Amino acid sequence: MDYKNHFAVLYSFRIKPGKDESFTAAWRELTQLIAEHEGGLGSRLHHENEHHYIAYAMWPDRNTWAKSGGNLPASAESFRMQMREACEEIKTLYELPVIEDKLKTV
After folding, report:
1. Fold of 7-97
2. Which burial class, exposed, middle or buried, applies to 87 when counting CB atoms under 10 A from its CB (0-12, 13-18, 19+)?
3. pLDDT by residue (tens digit) across 40-72?
4. Do the beta carbons of residue 84 and residue 23 sit within 8 Å?
5. Cα(41)–Cα(46) distance, rounded to whole angstroms?
6. How far is CA 38 from its chain centroid?
7. Which residue from 6, 24, 4, 5 is spatially nearest to 15, judged by alpha carbons?
8. Is the pTM of this model over 0.85?
């Protein structure tokens, strides 16, 4: 597969105490909707330390990522709200073109 146009975005989420499960449930559902309706290639969520998560999302290209959001069903907004309400801070850390991809899917 040719990855030369693929694009990755890294996010940081600082979660409010007691909101970890609510956040991860909403993240899971929203990520699925983005893949189904916006052309996203999926995402992985990592637990850095207590109440801090890092995620990276893969996209076929920067343009698909930049234009995403308009094709999501109405239910996506409730998941977005749930994520926002669970977070003290949400940051986009990096927007990166993919140069090589050797990650195996399981």
Report:
1. Alpha-Beta Plaits (3.30.70)
2. buried
3. 999 999 999 889 999 999 999 999 999 998 999
4. no
5. 17
6. 12
7. 24
8. yes
